[in-house]
Amino acid sequence: MYEIQAEDAELLKYFRTTTTKTRPLKLNRLLNRLRMEPMAGKRVIVCTKPYSEYALGTLGQKRGDPIVLDPERYAKLADAEWAMLKIRWALHTHHPWPADLD
Amino acid sequence: MYEILGYADEWTVAPGQTINFKVNCEYPMAFDADLVRVRCGDVSRGAPGLKESVAIPRIAEQVKGVKQYTEVGSRAVAPAFQESHEARRSWILAIMPTLPQNDADQIILSRGGAGAGYRLGLDRDGCLFWEQSNGADKQRLTLDTAVVARQWYLVRVCLDRVDGSVTLGQTPANPLLASNTHAQGRQVFGAVPDAGYDGLDMVFGAAATGANRPAYEHHYNGRVDSPTLLPYLADDVDLAQLRAEAGARLYATPPLAAWDFAQGIDTDDIFDTARAWSKGRIENLPVRGVPGLRWDSTVMNWQDKPDHFAALHFHDDTLEDAKWETSFSLTLPDDLPSGLYAARLTGPAGEQERITFIVRPKRGAERKKIAFLMSTATYMAYSNSHYRFDEEGMEMKSGHFMVLYPWETYLGEHRELGLSMYDTHSDGYGVYYASRRRPVFSMHLQCRTWSLNSDSRFLDWLDEKGFDYDVISDDMLHEEGLEALKGYNVVMTGAHPEYWTTRMWQAMVAYQQQGGRLMYMGGNGFYWRCAYHPAKPWLMELRRTETGARYSETPAGEGYHSYTGEYGGTWRRIGVAPQTLVGIGTTATGFDASSYYRRRPESLDPRAAFIFEGVDEEIIGDFGSSGGGAAGDEIDRADFRLGTPAHALILARSEKHTRYYNVVPEETTYHHPTINGEEAKYCYADLVYYECLNGGAVFSTGSITWGASLCWDSYQNNVSRITENVVRRFADDAPIEFPAISRE
Question: Which pTM value belongs to this model?
């Protein structure tokens, strides 16, 4: 399993400017690692109004548990994905989120 | 959302038939219902949107909406029988718990409800217990050693009315693998179950509550084999008899009951061999045709040595039939045109639900020249999918952080609606059975662009282009065989006709042999063999044997369907690859982005001229509402080794798929770094055309997202034009000439 390095923080800026068709290989590797999450308590994006409103949420510990939603809502999926990237980065690394990214 | 939710008792109905709608309302309300003809349900960005027209207004008015009840969990139930008037008796049986620690008691066998009765079960720590009650006092003997999951145990319960003792023991069938978890306990209860229980049902896999809702509780996850009731205190010799096949067991005195689950594996019946004409029934889909205690890997097919497969596998999350009360019914007018319809229910606050169903042409009625084949078998397989909730690999597979849509969050929180064949049970075993007698989200509109919702795009396009067509279904094809296809010049599939029964497959082959023309409008089609229940057509079975793109592995010895005895798996492994039917077969899957096709020289062949009339571009389908291209999601390619006809024209081929496309397991016998869309040699969709004998022909797109490009740019695009060219020619009565074979 890939171990995230401090220099991987440099790749984060490409998340919003690339798609899976154009993403640098090293960013793909980083994202694959950030997506390796157990389902219990997993942080996810929840579409609260079809294709028009999104929230971040947390899955329960077992099947059938309700998802607990964060209060903030996002009109754009891309903004919710960016927020999720920050969360996953913090979960999987001890490296700081680059200050100049937001 | 989903304040109103319902299902119809049938998915495919003919004019003149009556259809019953079963509706749940989250709170008391009165709702109205209209019959609408559905043209499209895809509301994703760039899609046609919801299009429907009222066929019959107010088919029901002010229907009282109630909250319906759903009972989940499997069991086997046998009628009451007389246990014994002997002073001593014993239960012996084999068990294989698959989720021993499950937060609650799990009952393996029981008699009686909340009052008098007895139960053999596992407690929340996975320790075996015997519990008995006279209605007032409840007593329990619990062993001090937990069982090991997925290991077989021989279990003995000795009941001695003389001294009032109960002895309970567990012996691992394989002490090495089960960590030598022998355990035995004895307790003097003062009184043991007597003939007072003789009037109570025998239940395996759960306990009766004595009430209606729920009727059963404490469902067991695991297998039971050969439960036997002896009229004396059993010893180790008796227990060892369970290792012998049913007909060879020697007991000091004939058993009082001896349930042999190897009998009638392809039925819902269970048989007590100790008493003539005594049988019970399975309920809510326990799995049959799976290895039991005596399976030794010498056979893989339950029909060869049924005794090796004498187990029932129970689960706490199965659902065969929701059995909701009928809310209203509708007898379809005799002249109702074939098509996709829905009962559109509207509540007082604007709550809405559309219960979809297919109106097929009547038997013997005049047919249109075009039939659109709805993939109802595939809709059954996907039914209520939870894999994005339960399978942690899904984010890596999709190439995106997980986004859960309202229909997914609802299903995730309403597990009582049952699972899909893409899911695993709570014990981790793959799901083999699916039912349509429940709300099924793969039949929903305005939902995931998949299954019926996705296929509605083709109906929209056919309507837009002014084609006159019938809508038929897999269910109809399975039931009637070739008769279902007779009279049609062309049959057009949906985007993802993945699951096919043998009868469906044979009917399509016969149709082709008689000159029928087939338009395969999708990807990953004709992939898995499935089976319908012989007596309950609302049930489907699937064993994903050996290989194929799948989310759980079918264990060894479970590769043969219990409903039909047929070997399960991909049609390719069965020996009839989809290339023999439609020229192409699955090569890769990926769900991040779609791509386009580039025309090949074969597209200039005069045989294909009609297909490209009005199409000058080299690039086909670099647009669409699903991933931005006509080639995506799941893609198929030609392979002459697997049966693509030698004269097939590969008109165009997709390219530039991403790293999140990976070739399916059967395409790579060993793994290496170049199995992704950027690097793999064979990761593309082929657009294929070939002529068949007797004036027939095949046109295949090889991509699930082809249909999502049809409406682009107001239906004026090369995907739409190519499709229209083919439909017009295939619907035409003029025979299509089989090409002369060149000897050069």
Answer: 0.97
pLDDT value for B266: 97
The CA-based dihedral angle spanning residues B408, B409, B410, B416, taken in that order and rounded to the nearest 10 degrees = 90
CA distance B70 to B77: 18
Cβ neighbours around B222 below 10 Å, total: 27
> Which has the closest alpha carbon to B315: B171, B214, B216?
B216
Which candidate from B392, B396, B426 shows the least CB-CB separation from A39?
Answer: B392
Counted domains in chain B: 1
Q: Is residue B141 part of a domain?
A: yes
Q: Which residues of B touch A63 (CB under 8 A)?
A: 317, 386, 389-390, 412, 415, 426
- One DSSP character per residue, B189-248 reads -S----GGGTTSPEEESSEE-SSSSSSEES---EEEEEEEEESS---HHHHHGGGS-GGG
Interface of A with B in 13-52 (CB under 8 A): 19-21, 25, 28, 32, 35-39, 42, 44-48, 50-51
Q: Give the mean model confidence (pLDDT) for residues B318-328.
A: 98
Q: Could you give the CA distance from residue B478 to residue B501 in angstroms, rounded to a whole number?
A: 7
Here the CATH number for the domain that contains residue B215 is: 2.60.120.200
Q: What is the pLDDT of residue B192?
A: 66
Residue numbers in A near B446 (CB within 8 A): 50
Q: Which of B445-449, B527-531, B620-624, B725-729 has the lowest mean pLDDT?
A: B445-449
Question: Tokens standing for B724?
Answer: 């229209």
Say yes or no: A63 contacts chain B, CB-CB below 8 A: yes
Q: Nearest CB to A46: which of B43, B404, B426?
A: B404
Rg (CA), chain B: 28
pLDDT > 70: percent of chain B: 99
d(CA B572, CA B574) in angstroms, rounded, equals 5
Region of poorest pLDDT, from B105-114, B320-329, B694-703 = B105-114
- Specify if B90 maps to a domain: yes
> Which 8-state DSSP code applies to residue B702?
-
pLDDT attached to residue B548: 94
Residues B415-474 have pLDDT tens digits of 999 999 999 999 999 999 999 999 999 999 999 889 999 999 999 999 999 999 999 999
Partners of residue A42 in chain B, C-beta under 8 Å: 392, 402
Instruction: Give contacts of A30 with chain B, Cβ < 8 Å.
Output: none
| pLDDT reported for residue B743 | 56
Q: Rounded distance, CA B577 to CA B641, Å?
A: 10
CB B145 within 8 A of CB B153: no
**Is residue B154 very low, low, confident or very high in pLDDT (cuts 50, 70, 90)?**
very high
Question: In this structure, are residues B183 and B171 in contact, taking their beta carbons and an 8 Å threshold?
Answer: no
Tell me if B625 is assigned to some domain.
Answer: no
Q: How far apart are CA B213 and CA B416, in angstroms?
A: 13
Residue B736 in any domain: the answer is no
Q: Is B405 left (phi over 0), alpha (psi -120 to 50) or beta?
A: beta
Asked if the Cβ–Cβ distance from A47 to B403 is below 8 Å, we say yes
Per-residue model confidence as pLDDT tens digits over A52-74: 999 999 999 999 999 999 999 99
Of the candidates B166, B173, B165, the one whose C-alpha atom is nearest the C-alpha of residue B148 is B173
Q: Which SS3 state, helix, strand or coil, does residue B117 take?
A: strand
Domain that holds residue B242: 75-314
